[in-house]
What does this fold into?
Amino acid sequence: MKKSIRRAAGIACTAVLLSGCSTPPAAGPLPNGTATASPPAAPDAASDPASSSPTPPSPQPEPPLPSGWLAQITGDAGRLAILGDSFAAGEGAGDYQPAVPGRGDSCHRSVYPAGAELFAPENTANLACSRATTGHLAAQQLLETTNETGADTVPAQLEQLQDFDPTLVVLSVGGNNLDFAGILQACLLEATPCSDNPGLGAHAEAELASLLPDLVDGYDQVAAAVSAPVLVLPYPQLFDAPDGDCGRLTTEEQRFGRNLITDLNAVIRSAVDSSSAPNVYYVDAVENALAGHGVCSQEPFVHAADVSGLLQAADSPTANQELLHPTYEGYRAMTRELVRWAAAHPAP
It folds into this structure.
């Protein structure tokens, strides 16, 4: 299997509309994913009574069965490790598991992230955390909790990986190295459209220019820690080609959002190409996993930022984090594209 050789053609005004948690989960028993196709359970109402739990999805096609080399590592003995940020953790899919048993937290590690349903739940370790950056792969930090007793110090994601011997690693990270919160607020809440704010584009361009070496370093560290293939997932395109305004998002802002994600993925692809690790691969098929089901579509696979969504986000920390993240259906679509990509590539 060869890495993609297409390099980033340029880094324009960018930053991605991603939110997510802040820290890696704590030591202790590894969290489990799931291999079932059942709808997600609602988030814990006790920790967030106003949360916007995902609506039970309509029946979706079963994901294609893994074939070739992927089938060899997804069976009963296959073990999946998930690393990175909110798009790795499954932010938006619901059924979030606490990083510290018995404590509430904002990592939002769902049991329904991309790829998890291909493995047995007991063989899946979701170590990702919303708002995690490349630095959180190897650095210890504090875990935000909803408990009044304070924050817990937790190990870095790579430190936790030492207790797990994966046959496959799925990794998504990099977006939170940028000022996502500022970009998100500018696009959704500010009177001046984010597409008309040259400062946002300039800031994002500068941040992306410095992101490449951080990504390369992160990929190399993960690849050195495991012998398994490390599949780097791009961020799925959240916006279809604009066809008029959409809630608070103008046509220009939707186009701005598309460019942000495209540019970020170009940097991620370049970082994979620049990595010296032989077991790191870029899964380009995931980029278009949500095509036709973007944030402004009739059947979005994304938590839309319409008036209702914004009102829910104002009242609920969970709903606020889930904005502009894939839904349960969205992550299943990403899984299908992951399988399709693996079937089209020879074994690593």
Summary: Residues 4-56 have pLDDT under 50 and may be disordered. Residues 198-225 form the longest helix (28 residues). The longest strand covers residues 80-84.
